Amino acid sequence: MQLENTLFEALGIEIVKYEKDEIILKMPVTPKVHQPLGFLHGGASVALAESAASMGGFLHIDPEKQSVFGIEINANHVKSKRDGYVQAKATPKHVGRTTMVWEINIVDENEKLISISRCTLGVVDLKS
Length: 128
Hints:
With 128 residues, the chain is an alpha+beta fold. The protein has a single domain (7-125), classed as Thiol Ester Dehydrase, Chain A. 17% of the residues lie in helices and 45% in strands. The protein contains two helices and six strands. It has a six-stranded antiparallel beta sheet with strand order 1-2-4-5-6-3. The two termini are 21 Å apart. The model has no long low-confidence stretch (mean pLDDT 96).
């Protein structure tokens, strides 16, 4: 898996845990991911959430025959953040043949909830 020259690198996202039933990604909260008023941008949180879900989905497929793509995501941002870091903890709620549903909780250093998301992934067969 290549992370260089991707959104991971641009946002400073690191992989903390990479297992089939739990993905944890860490992202620093710096001006790079702020909205104009100096707080964590909701879009950066959503990008982190979908990245975690997609990485988890990848572990449930045969990458030589299939791929996964985000087809829907929603987010509730419940707390703001100016600095430090956040972690996305993604767990599968449904793993099917053509779709998956992942829940992603984004928490701060003190495990306080920052954002909660649900992401639906489509499982797509690759053409030979």
